[in-house]
Amino acid sequence: YNMQSHWQFDDFSRYTFEVNDTKGAPVVGAKITLKSTQNQNEKVGITDNKGKVVIYPNMHSSKKIDHATIEYNNQVFEILDLNEEDYKVTIDVDLKRKNDVDIMFVVDTTG
User: Fold this and answer.
1) Which of 66, 70, 67, 34 shows the shortest CA–CA distance to 51?
2) Is the pLDDT of residue 62 over 70?
3) Is 5 helix (H, G, I), strand (E, B) or coil?
């Protein structure tokens, strides 16, 4: 008796990527693409403000994932062998940091 098949749950295995530049700063907005053995794009994720993304490759798909690409600033980096679940990746990119700050003042007038 298998609960996953009985209740028709998808496979919840996942890949976690943490992408940093060579100075250790998180790479925000990097596109991670998981690719199948036929080199087809299967699942895509974008890194958050900490440079992290979690992708569930087997949800609604049963294709075998075998490698990944990381795209940032028109550069493509490859991870050729996905045999782990968690990846800390350092890529040599020039992060374009803005010094802009958004400030919002809120006044509570409800008494």
Assistant:
1) 70
2) no
3) helix
Residues 14-30: tens digit of each pLDDT: 899 999 999 999 999 99
Q: Which residues share a beta bridge with 23?
A: none
DSSP for 11-45, written as a single string: P---EEEEEE-TTS-B-TTPEEEEEETT--EEEEE
Give residue for tokens 């974008």.
46
Residue 105: is it exposed, middle or buried by C-beta count within 10 angstroms (0-12/13-18/19+)? exposed
63, two tokens: 């294709």
| Higher-pLDDT residue of 98, 44 | 44
Sign of CA dihedral 86, 90, 91, 93: positive
Q: How far apart are CA 27 and CA 21, in angstroms?
A: 6
